[in-house]
Every structure is written in structure tokens, then in C-alpha cells.
Amino acid sequence: MESDQSGLSRREALIKLLRVTGAGAGAAGLALWLNEHSWRPETALAMTAKHSHTVPADPKFPEMAILQGDDPALLARQAVEELGGMRRFIARGDVVLVKPNIGWDRTPEQAANTNPDVVAEIVRESLNAGAKQVIVTDVSCNEPRRCFQRSGIADAAKRAGAEVILPEPSRFKEVDLQGEVLRAWQVFDPFLNVDKVINIPIAKHHGLTGTTLGMKNWFGMLGGQRNQLHQKIHESLVDLADFVRPTLTIIDCYRILIRNGPTGGNLEDVLLKKTLVASTDPVAVDAYVAKAYWNMDVAALPYLKLAAQRGLGTYEFEKVRTRVKKLG
Question: pLDDT (tens digit, 9 = 90+) per residue, 48-104?
């Protein structure tokens, strides 16, 4: 049910919820430089690419839903239902892009990629809501075909009715991202002209930023030498989040890679939490999961404050309307 607590007590209650739930599976001046090292933008694409995929706010529904249970697909379906149902987000005839993390040549149990059952359920829900086409894609860090196959996402998404698109080199376009740090960059073209975008990252540790969640997942739409962006990572994250503005963010917390991310590989680094957190506010959902699992707040994750200043959401997650539900 929806929490009626306020202030610090409500914040503590939300954080405690994620920390105590589940069982352990194991032991526990760069802007100029970037512009000079980018590519010439394709003006036509920069002008036609749709930046905002959001839907209007509705006070009848919560802004964040936290679901816990044994079945990842059921968690995904119910999380969307708590926020108003997929028909609130997807109109008949929409082309929808679903963006999981498919970055690594790992199995689902290793928790380096998004849970395939969650991805498949969001595909089904989107099609049931009337989507004309659902695309599932990512720009992998390891060899893409192995990542898409070994993660289980390609097969699960295809069975659910999605078009799975691998990152072929010919499909990258040079686009002006119109950011404060990021300007011309190679963007994988499925991201450029769709109606709705649903971001489904997995919550995991990251050696550089401490954790990788929703906004970090947007690195997976870029080509080129993405490691260059690490030199001004927080500003880059906000520029990407401003460029794409998702319809919905669903953070997969079913299995958490608690350390040695983002690649993982050791099952002792994985915690089983059996949780999904969905939100229309991409800043609040990142802030909540970062605080709950890694005790990281805006001081440790400057991109949260920068994103709030850009008008992308709030890092004060205790202030957003939140519904918590345990299934089964």
C-alpha cells in the first residue's frame, strides 16, 4: 500500500525496505576536448530525433512503485500496473524501444545484465497495450552476439514478440546531442525515431561511479570511444539523460551485483533481492536504489543533483508518491 509517512522517517522506511528484503546468493575544460574528439553531427538527424518520450503526470497514480516477490515477470507486470497500467504509457500504433543492459557476456545468474524475464514481460505488456512494434537493443561492451545470446535476453524478447536489433556498425549516426558537455557523437539509430522508450537497467556496482543504474544505462546507445566520457562522467550522464528522457524507468533489483561491477562473474558478488523499482522519475529511482543498496547519496553521485538542476526529476526520493507491494 502507499506509505503515509513523511520526512526523514519515510526516507528511512523506504531504504530499510530494500536493505532487509531478500536473501544473499553468496557471501555477501573537458567539454571542448570532447567536442574536438567527437564527430561532425548530422544536422537532419539532430533536428528530427525525438528527445522527450515522457507522458503527462497524473496525480491519481504513484510516481514510484516498489514490488517484491518470487516471479520477475509478475513483478514487472504489477509494477507497471501500480503506475497506471501500460496503456497509460503506450498508445496504439506506438513504436517502443526497450533498453535493457546487455553489455556483458554473462548469464542471468551473474547479474551483469538485465533479467530476461523482466524484459520479455515489458515487451508483452507494450504489445498488449497496442504498440505497433517493440524494439529491444543495446550497444554491448563485449561481443554483441554472445552478450545477447548468453544473457538470455535475445531469445526471451523474440519469444515475447520483440524485434531484437544487434548494434551493427552501419547503423550508427553522427548526431548533435546538444548537451552541455556532449555535442557530436555516434548514436545507434534505433534510439533516434521511436515514440516511447522504456529503460530497464539492472542495479549493480560500478568501479568508477560506485553504482550503475538508469542514467548510466544510456551509455548503451552510443558508439565511438565511450571510455572518453569517463573523464567527465557525471556531466556526460546528465547530457544523455536529457537527450533521451524515457517514458518509464524500471530498475531490475531481482539480483544485485553488489561489488566487482560492472562486469561481475563471481556468484559470491550477487545478492538475491527479488525486487523491482519502477518510476516515471528517472532521478528519484536512481537516487532511491543507490541509497538503499550502496548507501550513496547526492554527495557521492553528483549526477543526481545535476540532473535535478536540469529539470529531469528529483533526487529527494522520499518526496515522490510511492507505492510498496509484496506479491505472494
Answer: 566 899 999 999 999 999 999 999 999 999 999 999 999 999 999 999 999 999 999
pLDDT for 214 equals 97
CA distance 33 to 307: 22
Query: According to the model, what pLDDT value does residue 28 have?
Result: 36
pLDDT above 80 (res 274):
yes
Q: What is the CATH number of domain 54-326?
A: 3.40.50.11440
Residue type, 42: E
Distances (CA, A) of 258 to 19, 55, 159, 254, 265: 12, 32, 30, 12, 12
Residue 34: pLDDT over 60: no
pLDDT the model gives residue 3: 46
Report how far apart, in Å, the C-alpha atoms of 200 and of each of 24, 32, 44, 90, 170 are: 22, 32, 29, 16, 25
- In the chain, where the domains are located: 54-326
pTM of this structure: 0.90
- pLDDT (average), residues 239-244: 95
